[in-house]
Every structure is written in C-alpha cells, then in structure tokens.
Amino acid sequence: MRLNSAEIRRSAKAVRLLSTLAALALAGPAAAHGEHSTDTDTDLARVASFFSGAQIVEGPTKVDCTLSEGAKTTCFSITVRPDPKDYTPGPWCPTNISQGAEAGGIWFLDGKAVDVDGDFITRLAEVYGDSKWKLYDPETGDVRYTGTLEACEAAARPDVDPQYQNHCVQCLPEYMPEEASVTYVIPLEPVPSTRQQPTQRGGSGVASNGVRLDGPAPLDAILGAHTIAPFDDCGGHVNLHVGYHYHAVTDCLSPGATMLNRADPEAVEAHGGQIGIAMDGHAIFPHLMADGTEPEGLDACYGREGEGLPYHYHVGSAGSNQILGCLAAQTGCVLPESGMACDASRRPPRP
To answer: For the whole model, what pTM was predicted?
Structure first.
C-alpha cells in the first residue's frame, strides 16, 4: 500500500516523539549529560535503532576503515536493500498528456520541484526554449517513455541511445535483481577534513529507511539528449547501479531514533528529527525546522553547530538538486557488497 504525503506527515510527529525516547534509552547517561560515549556496543545499538525501518541484509558491525583523506579509524558497516518498506516508489512518467500529477513524479526547474504531468510534457519545448522537444505523439497524446529493462539500460546512461532521445526515462524497481543490496561504511565519529568533500562520488549519505541520499542528478546530460528522468513524489528514482535512491528530500522521510550521542532530545525534535546519516558520520535533518522555519547560519555544506546539537546538516530544498552542498569531514565508502575493505582515499579508475 502506498501512503500519501498527508498520511506520512500525520504520523511523523508521533514517530519523532518515540524516536527521542528511544534515543535517550540507547544513548545512556553519558549522552544525557552531554558526555562522549566510546562504548562500541552502544554505538552499534544506536545505529541499528536508527535503521530499524530499513531492509537490513547484514550489520551493523564495527570495521576498520580508511577515510577519504587517508585517516584510519573505526566505522560501522551496514548492508541494506535499496527499497523503502513504508511506501511503494513511483510513479515517474505519465503515459498520456491527458493525465494529471497523480500519474507522474516531479522534476527540478528553476530551483523548484514541479509536477511531471501531461501538461508539463506538452510544454517542454516552451520551458527549455527548444523546438526539438517532443516527448509525445501529437495525434494520440501518448507519452514516449522507457517501459522495459532494455529501454532503461539504453536510455539511463550518459550517451543515451539515439532511439530513446525525446523520451521520459524511468527504470522500475523490479528491474533490479532480487538480491540487490548496497553496503555503507561510515565513521562512527566524524574525522576532520582539510577541505570540503564533494558529494558526487559517494553520495551525501543514507536515509533512515536505508535509501541512498545521492549527490546532484546530472541534469545537463539528461536534458542534452532531450530526455527527462523524473523523480517520484518522494524525490527518488532508480538506476541499475544503486537501485532506488534520492536526489531530493520531500516529506516522505520519517525520522529514526537519533544517532547523536551528545544531543538534547528536545533540540533533536525542534530540528525536525534526524532523517539520515551523512557519509562523513554527521547527522542529517530535514530542510526546515519542526516549526516550519528555515535553519539559520548554515555553511556551504548546509551544516552548522549549535542550538543544542553538535555539527549537523539540513538538506537542501526539494527542487535544488542538492541534498547537501558538500561534506565537512572525511568520508567513508559505498561498496557493492559486504565484506569488502573500505579505503575511500583510493581514487576510482578513469573511465
């Protein structure tokens, strides 16, 4: 059953209250008094509680890791399926220009999230000032979209197959192997970095439901082929490498039991509840505070310290194509399978 946004919002407040109570129970007296806890079992229990809404395949476990600038430290490793348990992803592409917003997802335009409905499909030439846009048959109104695994493989790549230009690109979760999973190796305690870390390589982090919080979507490459690759109303879509993942955070993510061990529970609640953990180990919170106001004093990475919390992030607005601006500390690894050693200081081979 797919929950709508209103139902998710109504349940979020109750979940936040339970999350803060669980955080106190897990963090113990040291966290309640603002002291640093070094007990690994407590740390791993906190991680497990935070990801209780995820489809966990293995972990969390404590592992040795090498971070992005070469620091050797202790990380947690957790292997999850890239599939939320609390809602069904999609839809993405409408099939006919007569359909409304309920038949499609969202797209980023001028810093805002806009509905990919039939009307939007008909206005693409106007929106982008290019008469070559024509994602639909003018006689039938049918939208050209990728409806098979083969079409997804040909269209959802940097060099889009010419036959799938002028298509609405969607890859469905069922195209992924049943056993598909992703392993995240993230420092239990953030390690300072000499420079801000980009999010394009390993993503921004992972949400409490186990879904990857990615870096920016390559909009120029997508639009350059006269295609759009919509996100669903929760800000996610599928590629065949990492499965379902987010390029935006909307109101679908409910907070987990906080992983912060030096946090005032009331401050956690006031910040909207922790919804994710960044690849550098810092906590991620919603775009807005619980009272609907924007957090003040954020740095280039969308982070800040204060108001009862250690350094933490607030995600960018849903249409910004930027969940986090950057990462402030050294980052861990995203691995294709469990058991692999994490050395984030190694650069990937050139394509």
So the answer is: 0.87
